[in-house]
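Lecture notes, continued. The same structure-token format from the folding unit now serves as the input rather than the output. Read the line below as a description of shape only.
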């Protein structure tokens, strides 16, 4: 392995195509041996990450939509949710969340494309899931989160179990998406109050990383598990720009220590304007497992290979072995830009 340049690439999850087959065909064609895992691009109602969950959960007896009028987001209604007065959250019967159904459907496309030789043998099918905390923290009022979180967590774990039952384990990789967690860590304004002020647990850092360790534990050892650490991507902007990679490294280290199983990869974002040593310096203290791959989200649509290469040169002084990625999914990138983004990955990374 050449230890002086990035090795491989990661597609974080969403890709700006209308269907899973186009995503997988195009990614395999343009990125091929760079990818150990390939997602379905989260098309359809999943195009905006968790924003379809209010429509799903709003079907539940005992859960209400907040506000009289829908908040349209393409085909979705983005209004938040609340548990109705007098309802015991533990008695709620949530419907299927939609993640398992989508994964099983897309896996059949993945398998067909692999059989046709489009996707290389040994490539895994990547399923990206939000942490349960993300949905609870994004859509429910602060005073209801502690009681509802275990209910939603069990519903998400049922989705995971269905995925594990339906897809051969040696074909599968699960990624947990951690974004709302960093809204809490950074104490930024989000629905229901400022981050730390609306936290419903005890110690913030221990509570968040223990949750992620539990999520890792639910993935069997013969299935890969990775974590995408995220600062959001609404209109291609973070909810706050991190001062440096310090909180990302702290979270990754604590998760590595707490996880009862090896973590296959961890992804850390890099803001477009950060090509300075100060941003990357905390990577000097990153402690990942021997078999954990590091991906840095330093590929950006706006400045392509030149900008990525500039950030890579600085990052190499602090993390000599890593793969490349965008800082978040590219499902909301402007139409017509997706192939160029994929080509940039290929231009700045080499195969494993």
């Amino acid at each position: 392995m050449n230890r002086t340049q990035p090795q491989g690439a990661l597609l974080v999850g969403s890709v700006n195509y209308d269907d899973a087959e186009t995503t997988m065909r195009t990614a395999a064609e343009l990125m091929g041996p760079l990818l150990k895992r390939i997602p379905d691009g989260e098309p359809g109602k999943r195009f905006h990450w968790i924003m379809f969950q209010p429509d799903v959960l709003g079907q539940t007896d005992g859960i209400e939509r907040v506000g009289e009028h829908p908040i349209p987001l393409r085909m979705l209604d983005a209004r938040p949710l609340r548990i109705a007065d007098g309802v015991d959250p533990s008695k709620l019967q949530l419907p299927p969340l939609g993640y398992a159904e989508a994964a099983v459907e897309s896996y059949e496309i993945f398998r067909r494309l692999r059989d046709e030789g489009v996707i290389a043998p040994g490539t895994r099918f990547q399923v990206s899931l939000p942490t349960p905390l993300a949905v609870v923290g994004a859509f429910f009022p602060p005073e209801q989160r502690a009681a509802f979180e275990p209910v939603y967590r069990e519903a998400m774990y049922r989705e995971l179990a269905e995925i594990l039952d339906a897809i051969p384990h040696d074909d599968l990789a699960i990624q947990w998406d951690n974004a709302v967690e960093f809204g809490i860590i950074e104490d930024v304004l989000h629905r229901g109050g400022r981050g730390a002020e609306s936290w419903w647990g005890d110690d913030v850092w221990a509570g968040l990383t223990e949750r992620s360790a539990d999520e890792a534990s639910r993935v069997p050892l013969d299935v890969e598990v990775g974590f995408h650490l995220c600062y959001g991507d609404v209109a291609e902007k973070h909810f706050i720009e991190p001062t440096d990679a310090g909180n990302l490294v702290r979270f990754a280290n604590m998760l590595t220590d707490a996880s009862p199983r090896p973590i296959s990869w961890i992804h850390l974002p890099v803001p477009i304007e950060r090509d300075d040593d100060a941003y990357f310096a905390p990577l000097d203290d990153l402690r990942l497992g021997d078999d954990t791959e590091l991906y840095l989200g330093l590929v950006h649509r706006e400045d392509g290979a030149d900008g990525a290469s500039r950030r890579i040169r600085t990052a190499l002084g602090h993390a000599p072995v890593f793969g490349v990625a965008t800082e978040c999914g590219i499902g909301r990138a402007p139409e017509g830009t997706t192939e160029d983004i994929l080509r940039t990955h290929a231009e700045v990374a080499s195969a494993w």
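Point for the exam: Residues 142-166 form the longest helix (25 residues).
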